[in-house]
């Protein structure tokens, strides 16, 4: 039985889990959860899928779990010899990957995710962009990228010289920032640009994007 992935296709973490499933070469069924209609807050979803009323979540033959990073670790351990290895075997290398992955959450996603949400909402005429807030978040994001530039000058990927989950979780947000907000993260940062060019050209990401190419978010 294929894994069910519960999500909303305008959610960056949901896109990340879809990407990870493709990286691990695991077939899955997409179950659309309409967040604007608050389907994630319905009693059945709260009782059976995620009591916090959020996405993404997976159902693997009755085993249900949520949180994108926890899902990634579960999939990597369940399919250790299949597809891309997301986490290293070595304890210290794995700790560095965890460090970089959580660093992405705090230093990258918290700013980029909000910028994408504001841009999408404004496009759907739900509310106007808070220009001051966007500029402040962009300033913090660019500072993070300056740090990344230094890191990537010394190594091929964000957590070392091997591709890991720490790189993959950056892909959906980086793609959305470029396409929806018009922010080129690699501008003036050759090492970041080299890293992003490699990540965004991955077949697994192109396959993930193709799944949702006709999706137009309706927020009102």
TrEMBL record:
A single BP term in Gene Ontology: glutathione metabolic process
InterPro entries (UniProt xref): Glutathione-S-Trfase_C-like, Glutathione-S-Trfase_C_sf, Glutathione_S-Trfase, Glutathione_S-Trfase_N, GST_C, Thioredoxin-like_sf
Domain GST C-terminal: 90-219
Pfam families per record: GST_C (PF00043), GST_N_3 (PF13417)
GO cellular component entries: cytoplasm
GO MF term (any one): glutathione transferase activity
PROSITE patterns the UniProt entry points to: GST_CTER, GST_NTER
Catalysed conversion reaction: RX + glutathione = an S-substituted glutathione + a halide anion + H(+)
E.C. code: 2.5.1.18
Enzyme class: transferase
Domain GST N-terminal as annotated: residue spans: 1-83
Record key words, sorted: Transferase
PANTHER family: GLUTATHIONE S-TRANSFERASE RHO (PTHR43900:SF3)
Protein name as annotated: glutathione transferase
Organism per entry: Leucocoprinus leucothites
